């Protein structure tokens, strides 16, 4: 089975009726070739790469001044671009960065990060109920708290129109599964600093928040529905 992105699970839950869901489920379960989309994080050109990379760097270097430099660079590209589609792509990335100027990075970033972990390509597939889900964290960071080494992570996701809070929770849920599977032997996982961020709307959710809501696993519920169709 071809790997499935969390965006595709979200797309499935948004289908308007059972027939549309059944067709989409069949596509997910039967496809063998990679399907590329302009904003699909599972491969191909990343529509949001410039804003995502900039936010990553702001987080890593704790330097909000990086926003303005990237915005100026993108503004020049908007002016130089001939195709409206390309202009729109650059402008949307500018809009995201302008929104993030008011996002409090310091609320999700430990004051002292010991090191950043590299995401291994082989680790990006996590199987849930025999479905290969593609997980692509943006930043993994090791920090110390109460004498213990902990690992936190952020996953920046974007699409036009953004995500509902429960949809964003699906990314957060799988980010935590990813951390537990690959890093729990070496680190204590920071539930409050395991965070999915919707860059389009500049909203976030942590695994601790998700856990405290007592909500059942939307990922597993969605996969069960897909399997039964």
Topology:
Layout: E1 4-5, H1 6-13, H2 18-30, H3 49-61, H4 66-80, H5 84-100, E2 113-117, E3 125-128, E4 131-134, E5 139-145, E6 148-157, H6 165-183, E7 188-198, E8 203-206, H7 207-212, H8 218-228
Parallel strand pairs: 1-4, 6-7
Antiparallel strand pairs: 2-5, 3-4, 5-6, 7-8
Helix pairs in contact: 1-8, 3-4, 3-5, 4-5
Describe the protein's architecture and organization:
With 229 residues, the chain is of the alpha/beta class. The protein has a domain at 108-228. The chain has helices at 6-13, 18-30, 49-61, 66-80, 84-100, 165-183, 207-212, 218-228; strands at 4-5, 113-117, 125-128, 131-134, 139-145, 148-157, 188-198, 203-206. Strand 5 (139-145) and strand 6 (148-157) form a beta hairpin. The chain is globular. The model is unreliable at 36-44 (pLDDT under 50).
Summarize the structure.
This protein has eight helices and eight strands. The chain is of the alpha/beta class and 229 residues long.
Separate helix tally: 8
Structural class: alpha/beta
Order of neighbouring strands in the sheet with most strands? 2-5-6-7-8
Q: Kindly provide the radius of gyration, computed on alpha-carbon positions and rounded to a whole number of angstroms.
A: 18 Å
For the sheet with most strands, the description reads:
5 strands, mixed
Distance between the termini: 16 Å
Counting copies of identical and different chains, the oligomeric state is: single chain
Contiguous low-pLDDT stretches (5 residues minimum) are 36-44
Number of strands: 8
Name some characteristics of this structure.
229 residues, alpha/beta, five-stranded mixed β-sheet, three-stranded mixed β-sheet, 8 helices, globular
């Amino acid at each position: 089975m071809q790997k499935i992105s969390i965006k595709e699970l979200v797309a499935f839950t948004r289908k308007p009726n059972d027939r549309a869901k059944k067709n989409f489920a069949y596509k997910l379960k039967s496809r063998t070739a990679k399907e590329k989309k302009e904003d699909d994080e599972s491969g191909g050109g990343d529509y949001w790469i410039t804003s995502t990379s900039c936010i990553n760097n702001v987080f890593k270097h704790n330097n909000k001044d990086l926003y303005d430099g990237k915005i100026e660079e993108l503004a020049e590209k908007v002016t130089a671009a001939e195709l409206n589609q390309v202009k729109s792509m650059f402008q949307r990335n500018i809009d995201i960065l302008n929104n993030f100027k008011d996002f409090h990075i310091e609320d999700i970033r430990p004051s002292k990060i010991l090191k950043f972990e590299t995401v291994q390509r082989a680790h990006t597939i996590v199987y849930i109920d025999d479905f290969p889900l593609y997980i692509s964290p943006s930043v993994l960071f090791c920090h110390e708290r109460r004498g213990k080494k902990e690992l936190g992570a952020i996953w920046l996701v974007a699409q036009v129109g953004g995500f509902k809070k429960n949809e964003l929770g699906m990314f957060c849920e799988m980010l935590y599964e990813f951390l537990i599977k690959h890093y729990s032997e070496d680190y204590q996982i920071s539930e409050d600093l395991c965070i999915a961020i919707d860059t389009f709307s500049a909203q976030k959710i942590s695994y601790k928040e998700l856990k405290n809501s007592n909500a059942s696993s939307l990922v597993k519920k969605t996969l069960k529905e897909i399997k039964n169709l």
